[in-house]
Amino acid sequence: MVPVPWPGLLLGCLGLFLSPQAAAAEFSPSLDSDFTFTLPAGRRECFYQPMRKEASLELEYQVLDGAGLDVDFHLLSPKGETLVFDERKSDGVHTVETEDGDYMFCFDNTFSTISEKVIFFELILDNMGDDGQDQEDWKKYVTGTDLLDMKLEDILESINSVKARLSKSVQIQTLLRAFEARDRNIQESNFDRVNFWSMVNLGVMVVVSAVQVYMLKSLFEDKRKSRT
């Protein structure tokens, strides 16, 4: 099985096959990543995310396009235990406290034999251990805080607050783009349906009009035979 190429891959590259119908990929250690891919009919795609102990993994997904706008979702712990199972849902948000190991999450479209699905998901990783190192780095370069009457902790708190708000803004914008893409796909599908049934109604009207003209014309025809 050759995996379907996915443009715009920001999180990582598909590198490990779980089964003939399941692929897995490991992402770079990014704190906030999003990804959109196409899941063919009858297929199941799985991904790995390495996590640390006492960290937090938040995952949000949406089905942007495809018949029914639904998919099965599985989230498994490093021990193989099922933490989350969503059956034929269009979207979902899940947050789990993690331990050391690789967490696996899968999107399952095996119940569909015809329709492929376009799926967007976003990962948000908290308490991955980078903030403490950042604080130590800041302490190396900041001196004389007593003379400035300002504590280093206050500076770090303000910076972290701004960073958190910026991250939240980026996350909201990303989700809004996903909602916009799904709404646009629904509108385009409705537009095609309206055009199709409008053409069907127009065809029926033309046929009915032709039959009515023929019937009226036949009523006024002189069917009497001329005498010789």
Describe it for me?
- It is a single chain.
- The chain is of the alpha+beta class.
- The protein has 2 domains: 28-127, Jelly Rolls; 160-220.
- It has 2 helices and 10 strands.
- The protein has helices at residues 130-141, 152-219; strands at residues 14-19, 22-25, 32-39, 44-51, 56-65, 71-76, 82-89, 91-97, 101-108, 117-126.
- A 6-stranded mixed β-sheet has the order 1-2-4-9-6-7, with no helix packed on it.
- The chain is elongated and about 110 Å long.
Strand order, sheet with most strands? 1-2-4-9-6-7
> Unreliable runs, pLDDT <50, ≥5 residues?
1-30
Cα-atom Rg, whole angstroms? Answer: 30 Å
Overall CATH class of the largest domain: Mainly Beta
- CATH architecture classification name of the largest domain: Sandwich
Terminal residue distance: 86 Å
How many distinct beta strands? 10
Strand content: 25-35%
- Under CATH, the homologous superfamily of the largest domain reads GOLD domain
Helical amount among residues, as a percent range? 25-40%
Counting structural domains, the number is 2
Per the principal axes of the C-alpha atoms, what is the gross shape?
A: elongated
Largest sheet: 6 strands, mixed
How many helices?
2
Output the helix-strand order: EEEEEEEEEEHH
Mean pLDDT: 77
According to CATH, the fold-level topology of the largest domain is Jelly Rolls
